[in-house]
Specification:
mainly alpha, 2 domains, 18 helices, 0% strand, globular
Length: 476
């Protein structure tokens, strides 16, 4: 067995706070930079007019749903990799990485092909206006073609998180986002002999830069750089592992898809209260998305760190990581929520400086929802612990309960059947966040996650048995 790089061992000992920040900071930075693709597209496409903006906006919910599927399947590989890293089993780390890559690429090709050919029917079903349809169709089809590159880079990021090397994806994303900003105007408007493709040009620019990111990720994995080596034999289909990883990752895909669908359904309810309420929600959601980035980054860092320690048999340290992660999530997001609660009008005015009505409505929304952001940070961190132990079904159930049992029914009842009106929707968010956080604390405190382990405990003494049981015979 190959020796384990020192960087991996540092996460299994020493100060927990340092280990968490070592992983969380680059993950948060990568997530922030990743949003640069949407910001860049919005900036340049906005110069084409309202129909062009609408064309891009129509594609986002559909692609977000696709990304949720890819991201969920990537989580399965990341979780297994983290546990194998902790168990110091480098051979299985490479094998799991290669098989996860194969599985996600196959899924992306299937989804991309279906999406490409059904895009016209989907847009007609959405009732797209005639002036928006051509741009929306071009943008959506190119986005579906690029799905394989998006999914490939998702896997690369998940693998890097799993082995504790979260910094490299930051550099790749930073470079490709800058390149995307330069390519967008070139392909949207054209220049010299290069024709302008309008709205579709934005999708083409993203396709080009995402393909570069995916290729760089594959090169890193194949050359054995940065602590992991995916060999040719690891890319030979191992259907026993693929089946195992698919059913491990499928609940995570359902979980993330439920969040996406929940946002869409909530938008319909909010829209029933008129343009002002919808505008307030739209502006406020921008702030919520900023808040979610560090929460998700902390959750991913907790998941990777706990997974490695579970693999190494350090259950007590894994529990301490969960407690510290929950405390950091609660304190950090509570502080952010306090700032937003104290200065909501100022924050909303940054986005809509000349509309007093939207500023007032948006400030009201932010004051209410910011009350429970600390509980959201706590819940995200503890969910990371459950996910690291392989309790994907439990995290899925928690999300479904949060979105469909608590949040949406509460929003509907409070807004439609009480005097609160639109405020009832806003109050549903903090009530649901506090409730699901308390439920998650109970699940975590019960401790069943400590008994669940995805890999064979005695890897050093029974590596061959482990491979046969979990992933079948690996070609030598």
């Amino acid at each position: 067995m190959d020796s384990v790089p020192p960087a991996k061992n540092k996460l299994l000992g020493g100060p927990i706070l340092r280990s968490l920040l070592t992983l969380a900071v680059p993950i948060v930075m990568a997530n922030i930079l990743q949003s640069g693709y949407q910001i860049t597209d919005a900036f340049w496409v906005g110069r084409l007019g309202g129909a062009a903006v609408a064309a891009v906006s129509l594609s986002f919910p559909v692609m977000f749903l696709m990304f949720a599927i890819g991201g969920g399947l990537s989580i399965a590989g990341s979780t297994l990799i983290a546990q194998y890293v902790g168990a110091r089993n480098d051979r299985m780390v490479g094998h799991v990485a290669g098989q996860t890559l194969l599985m996600v690429v196959l899924v992306s090709l299937i989804l991309g092909t279906i999406g490409y050919f059904t895009a016209p029917s989907l847009l007609r079903l959405m009732g797209v206006a005639p002036d928006v349809y051509p741009g929306a169709l071009g943008f959506m089809r190119v986005s579906f073609v690029g799905l394989v590159f998006n999914f490939t880079f998702f896997v690369f990021q998940a693998i890097m998180r799993g082995i504790g090397r979260a910094t490299l994806p930051v550099y790749i994303v930073a470079g490709t986002v800058c390149l995307n900003f330069a390519l967008d105007p070139l392909l949207i408007f054209g220049w010299g002999p290069i024709p302008g493709y309008g709205v579709m040009g934005a999708a083409l620019a993203t396709l080009g830069t995402q393909s570069i990111a995916a290729i760089l990720g594959i090169v890193v994995l194949r050359l054995g750089l940065h602590g992991i080596h995916v060999r040719r034999r690891d890319l030979i289909p191992d259907f026993s592992y693929v089946k195992r990883a698919f059913f491990l990752g499928f609940p995570a895909s359902i979980e993330m898809s439920a969040r996406a669908l929940g946002l869409i359904v909530m938008s319909f309810l909010i829209a029933s209260f008129g343009t002002l309420t919808l505008a307030a929600y739209g502006v406020g959601t921008n702030i919520v998305q900023v808040m979610i980035v560090p929460a998700m980054g902390l959750s991913m860092a907790v998941s990777s760190l706990v997974g490695q320690n579970i693999g190494a048999g350090n259950i007590d340290r894994a529990a301490r990581i969960g407690r510290l992660g929950g405390l950091l999530g609660f304190a950090g997001l509570s502080a952010f929520g306090l700032v937003v609660f104290l200065f909501p009008a100022t924050i909303v005015a940054f986005f809509v400086p000349n509309d007093p009505a939207v500023i007032a409505a948006g400030a009201e929304y932010l004051r209410i929802v910011s009350l429970a952001w600390g509980f959201m940070g706590l819940q995200f961190a503890l969910t990371g612990v459950l996910r690291a132990s392989g309790n994907m079904v439990m995290t899925m159930v928690l999300t479904l309960v949060s979105q469909w049992v608590l949040q949406f029914p509460l929003a509907y009842v409070l807004s439609k059947h009480t005097a609160l009106g639109a405020q009832g929707i806003w109050w549903a968010f903090p009530i649901a966040n506090v409730a699901i956080a308390l439920i998650t604390i109970g699940v975590y405190a019960k401790g069943d996650w400590k008994k669940k382990r995805l890999i064979e405990p005695e890897v050093e003494l029974a590596e061959k048995v482990t491979e046969e049981i979990l992933v079948g015979e690996v070609p030598r």
